[in-house]
Amino acid sequence: MQIQPILAALRQHKAGTVLIALQIALTLAIVCNALFIIHQRVTHLSEPTGIDEANLFVIGNQWADQSSAQQVDAQMQADLATLRQLPAVRDATASNSYPLVGGGWDDFITMTPDQVQKTTDASVYFGDTHFLDTLGLKLIAGRNFRPDEVAPMSPHEVVTPPVVIVTRALADKLYPDGSALGKSFYAMSATPTTIIGIVARLQRSEVDTWSRPYAYQALIWPRRLDGTVGTNYIVRAKPGQLEAAMREAKQGLIAQNRMRIIDPKDGVLSFAQVRHRAYDSDRGTAILMGIICAVLLVITGAGIIGLTSFWVGQRRKQIGIRRALGATQRDILHYFQTENLLIAGAGVALGAILAVGLNLWMMKQLAMDRMSLLYVLAGVVVLLLLGQGAVFAPALRASRVSPVEATRTV
Amino acid sequence: MFAYYLDLALRSLKRNKLLTALMIVAIGFGVAASMITYSVFRAVSGNPIPDKSAQLFTPQIDSWGPQQSFNGDGEPPQALDYTDAMALMHAHAAKRQTLIYPVQMTVMPGGDRSLPINAYGIAAYGDFFPMFEVPFQYGRGWSGTEDQARAAVVVLSEAFNRKLFGGADSLGHEVNLGGHTYRVVGVIRHWNPQPRFYALFGGSDFGQPADFYMPFTRALDLHIGTAGNNSCRGKQTARGWDDYLQSNCVWINPWVELDTPAEVARYRNFLEGYAVEQQRAGRFNWPPNVRLRDVTQWLAYMHVVPPESRIALMVSLGFFVICLVNTVGLLLAKFMRRAGEIGVRRALGASRREIYFQFLIEAATVGLAGGLLGLLLTAVGVSGVGLLFEPQIARLAHVDLSLIALTLGVAIAATVIAAFYPTWRAAHVQPAWHLRTN
Q: N or C: which end of chain B has fewer CB within 10 A?
């Protein structure tokens, strides 16, 4: 196939050529960035939490009587006893927050008491001896809390407990050589805290952009936080009994003491619901980008079909002449396919530059990450295939133009 | 002539239905995607208090020092600690000033309610109501005297008053919040500026209005902690409420009202002076670092517009541009196919102007059809926007008259602009050449 005559013919259709190339270029720029965003969001929302999500649920419990911390502590222990006795419940614990709740408590971590700049940041959970079993955390080194280490604590009293359980991510950050067990650190306090246990994985309570650098860095204090407003109960159902446990738990707590508030709408949430809520905006963005990509490819494909059909219609006479001079149907088909490949090639070349430019702009304006060139490569392949697919029908029609057309004047 | 051109346009559009449909669909989808994402963006980036946003300021004082700044950018904390907040209140250097923090409390059973209910409130100084132009249904806010007297008074929201008192005039009635009684002095009409600019440090940027408002001083007396954010630096040694108040933890949203540039300058000086004084007293070991941002600047600084909303709008606009490029190509094909017809019209005496007019009307017809399809898709999209954005943000998006007008206007305008080049080509068809070959 000779390129020269195709280029000569394209010179007669500058505007149309430029428009198709431009459309392909812009489509490529948007599609690869959209694919990148989709992949990033989907990766984000499928990150594991390290807990037994399938059997867990949480209860947001608010106290009616908000007067005394002692009373709250007694009520909390009574509630936990009630929950743990329920037939469908395996274990239960009370905490200030839980993974993916959004927001929560975090502490700056330092290696010495006088260090000004933090070494890292850790998500803070309060829990008793049942915390590890309830969440289904895997202890990979050290031990669980002993009952005598667990104590009540009121929210405005900041006393760093002497012992702590940390995640592997936090342990490795503080002691990269793997010697964290038995070592200590400071959590915004004058006194150190000693690592007595390390769990394999526990997601932070929030997964916002600011906390990405500290992903999975979390610690557990052996404390019952007696907030006078309320507490969260985290409950692990026996396998397959999640729904029953959720029902029993709410009824059980109300029966134990009516003077509490469990929101009828979102007071009791399965962990699947918690996860769904936590990644609302990630999922939404991925869906939107997906819809836009799909519609965009369809419209660009249809646009190519439209313009090529028009060209075929315009060139019937020339095609007839070529056929009369001995060109085969296959030659005509290849002619249009090659023409499209040339235009699409120019389009994707420009598009690749635009795609990278758009990504750089979004990095600057919207704090996006750098896009891997693989997305551009994938986009280029998709658009070249799209172009070939779209051109096929009009090109086939062109190849069927009869040589007789050459003799017609119109 | 207009009617004739319209007729010609419709005939022409009917001639190649597939091409016409393709253009209409492209414009429809392009405009709908842009409008759906714009309806969300408009809601989250709007000015919550347009007539006063330039007179309301939130002062910031660096009580942490440059090494401990929030994002390592040298900016002062986004809220005040108790010490600085009270110093500003006592200095009384602005026309009006208030301190704000969110609280969460329980309303005990009473009347026909057998179960306690949850309530979100705002603890503030009384200037809150006139400063933010809060509209009252019954009664009023509380005065500076009541602030000082740490009075047990409360202002209810319209919805909360309906819940507790069936919507009746409840002035003088008592409400039990968190085990203490408060006298109702006012009920406000629906008031929920979005974003909730006045309490960004302390909960969600967008959301439901507070159920009640109570004096800041009273809330402190009862040791009610913030239901919003609380952020501290360095070693924490608090052993109770009083220690907590003396700590460097920031949790209070301060606002002042300053009417003239002179007042703003004076207040800025006052803030600088205060920080210098604190440095001299040895409380701050760094040079004064203060800010005084108005509502618009504060919203921008706090990045209230979610990045998702921006990205979605950008990508949708890009999508729309591609749809338009597509339309340019298709219109070009469509118009140039009629080169012969144009040649005849020109030869019979039609001016270029008339050709322009004819084809732009045809384009506008396509634009209108695309706009109508876009409108339909926008309506469907906005109602399903909960799938794409967080519930509290999706809730804000709605179709109103201005969005409808914008959808149609943008569709038609964009299509006509897209038609300029194809029309120009059509108008420059050489009549002689086309008459000869045809």
A: N
CA–CA dist A193, A163 (Å, integer): 5
How far apart CA A19 and CA A17 sit, in angstroms, is: 5
Predicted TM-score (pTM) above 0.90? no
Q: What is the pLDDT of residue B438?
A: 46
Tokens at B20, concatenated: 């016409």
3-state secondary structure of B69: coil
Closest CA to B327 of B35, B31, B36: B31
Whether the CB-CB separation of B236 and B138 falls below 8 Å is answered with no
Q: Quick check: A295 contacting B, CB < 8 Å?
A: yes
Domain range annotation of chain B: 2-47+306-437, 63-257
B98-146, pLDDT tens digit by residue? 999 999 988 887 767 778 888 999 999 999 999 999 999 999 999 999 9
Structure tokens at B162: 């309906």
A376 to A28, A60, A207, A373: CA distances (angstroms): 8, 46, 28, 5
Cβ contacts of B101 on chain A, cutoff 8 Å: none
Q: Choose, out of A295, A298, A391, the residue to mutate when testing the contact with B (most B CBs < 10 Å).
A: A295
HSE toward the beta carbon, residue A331, CA cutoff 13 A: 16
CB A218, CB A106: distance < 8 Å: no
Q: Give the pair of three-digit tokens for residue A29.
A: 């720029």
Each residue's pLDDT tens digit, B262-304: 999 999 999 999 999 999 998 998 999 999 999 999 999 988 8
Closest Cβ–Cβ partner in A62, A158, A367 for B237? A158
How many Å apart are CA A75 and CA A92, to the nearest integer? Answer: 15
Interatomic CA distance for residues B417 and B334, integer angstroms: 16
Answer yes or no: are the C-beta atoms of A59 and A271 closer than 8 Å. Answer: no
Query: Considering only residues 12 to 51 of chain A, which have any Cβ-Cβ distance to chain B shorter than 8 Å?
Result: 15-16, 19-20, 22-23, 26-27, 29-30, 33-34, 37
Nearest to B154 by CA among B203, B116, B252, B165: B165
> Distance between the two ends of chain A, CA-based, in angstroms?
28
The C-alpha R_g of chain A, in whole angstroms, comes to 32
Q: What is the rounded distance in angstroms from the CA atom of residue B408 to the CA atom of residue B374?
A: 8
For residues A388, A394, A399 and A401, what is the CA-based torsion angle, rounded to 10 degrees? -170
What span, in angstroms and rounded, lies between the C-alpha atoms of B411 and B21?
15
The rounded distance, in Å, linking the Cα atoms of B30 and B377 is 10
Q: What is the pLDDT of residue A275?
A: 94
**Residues of chain A contacting B316 with CB distance shorter than 8 Å:** 292
CA–CA dist B3, B62 (Å, integer): 69
Phi, psi of A58 (to 5 degrees): -125, 150
Q: Is B31 helix (H, G, I), strand (E, B) or coil?
A: helix
- Which residues fall within 8 angstroms of residue A162, CB to CB, at 6 or more apart? A191, A192, A193, A194
Q: Please state, in angstroms and rounded to a whole number, the distance separating the CA atoms of residues A210 and B203.
A: 16
With 0-12 / 13-18 / 19 or more C-beta atoms within 10 angstroms meaning exposed / middle / buried, residue A321 is middle
Positive/negative CA dihedral, A255, A258, A263, A267: negative
Q: Please list, in sequence order, all residues whose beta carbon lies within 8 angstroms of the beta carbon of residue A77, skipping any fewer than 6 positions away.
A: A224
d(CA B183, CA B218): 12
* The amino acid at B213: Y
CA distance between the termini of chain B: 27
Residue in A292, A304, A318 to test binding to B, most B beta-carbons within 10 Å: A292
Taking only the tens place, the pLDDT of each residue in A78-106 is 999 999 999 999 999 999 999 999 888 89
d(CA B430, CA B347): 9
Q: In this structure, what are the phi and psi dihedrals at residue A107, rounded to the nearest 5 degrees?
A: -120, 145
Cα distance between residue B20 and residue B12, in whole Å: 9
ipTM for the whole complex: 0.84
